[in-house]
UniProtKB/TrEMBL annotation:
A 1,2-diacyl-sn-glycero-3-phospho-(1'-sn-glycerol) binds at R136. Catalyzes the transfer of the diacylglyceryl group from phosphatidylglycerol to the sulfhydryl group of the N-terminal cysteine of a prolipoprotein, the first step in the formation of mature lipoproteins. Keywords: Cell membrane, Lipoprotein, Membrane, Transferase, Transmembrane, Transmembrane helix. It is a multi-pass membrane protein. Its EC number is 2.5.1.145. The chain crosses the membrane at residues 12-33, 45-66, 86-109, 121-149, 169-190, 197-215, 227-248. It is an enzyme of class 2 (transferase). Pathway: Protein modification; lipoprotein biosynthesis (diacylglyceryl transfer). This is Phosphatidylglycerol--prolipoprotein diacylglyceryl transferase. It comes from Variimorphobacter saccharofermentans. Belongs to the Lgt family. Its main location: membrane. The keyword Oxidoreductase does not apply.
Length: 268
């Protein structure tokens, strides 16, 4: 749609700009929640930084794993073509790889610096779908993660995209996923303010997002996502995370005190 804009003589990619806006707003929201969780502001900021680093590395790594067969087929071209190598390393990203790696690195920070893990989870998890929602708007502007051919209500047509097919009516899957992510954020934010346990917040996110992502994958038109037995890699990961989340939620459904910081409850 509009991959970049020029501001004060500088060309800025809207995809990156939307993610930056999401991170800034998400950090502000996380800091507001941190006060209720007895988490220091600096710990929240550093945990977010750790999470972002893990997100970038994990998202890129899973993308490269999915594309490994294609990479091996063209390894000679990639080795001798500098631009192709740069394109491979700079383009392509899988959300689930980023989320899992970012979450693990955030937990590592908490363990390393003795920060209450449950409080941090209840602080950070609600902003994940918020940042993701802005990211999907960025995808819409860039034309990546585009939808299936569709000529019904609210269809979109790209005219100068470098990623999506141009002059073809497509389903606006990026905008739909963004809207659902905003809805998930509002639910998790409300849950965090109502003193829901960290386990409840985390499992709610995993259940809601995995179901949504499983469905959204059927509306995606980009083929470079990896498929196995008719389902995309993200759909298989969605199934796995859904099963894990339901198991954890059921196991902890009768216990709140063991997953919520006492300091947090005392402040209520």
């Amino acid at each position: 749609m509009l991959p970049e804009v020029t501001i004060l003589g500088h060309t800025i990619a809207l995809y990156g700009l939307m993610i930056l806006i999401g991170v800034i707003i998400g950090t502000i929201v996380a800091l507001s929640l941190a006060r209720r969780m007895s988490i220091k502001n600096e710990d929240v900021i550093f945990a977010i930084i750790y999470g972002i680093i893990g997100f970038i590395v994990g998202g890129k790594l899973l993308y490269l794993i999915i594309e490994l067969p294609l990479i091996l087929q063209n390894i000679d071209r990639i080795i001798h073509d500098y631009q192709l190598l740069i394109s491979l390393l700079s383009g392509g990203f899988v959300f689930y790889g980023g989320f899992i790696a970012g979450f693990l690195l955030m937990l590592f920070y908490c363990r390393r610096y003795q920060v209450p893990t449950t409080g941090m989870i209840a602080t950070i998890i609600p902003i994940v779908p918020l940042v993701h929602a802005f990211g999907r708007i960025g995808c819409f502007f860039a034309g990546c993660c585009y939808g299936i051919p569709y000529e019904g209500w609210m269809h979109i047509v790209f005219h100068r995209s470098l990623v999506a097919p141009n002059e073809v009516s497509l389903f606006p899957v990026q905008l739909l996923e963004s809207a659902v992510n905003f809805g998930i954020f509002l639910f998790l934010y409300y849950s965090a303010r109502k003193a829901k346990s960290a386990t409840a917040i985390l499992t709610s996110y995993l259940i809601l997002y995995s179901i949504m992502r499983f469905i959204m994958e059927f509306l995606r038109g980009d083929s470079a996502r990896g498929f196995l037995l008719g389902l995309s890699v993200s759909q298989w990961i969605s199934i796995l995370l859904l099963i894990i989340a339901i198991f954890i939620k059921k196991r902890h459904s009768d216990s709140i005190s063991d997953v919520v910081d006492k300091d947090f409850l005392d402040k209520r």
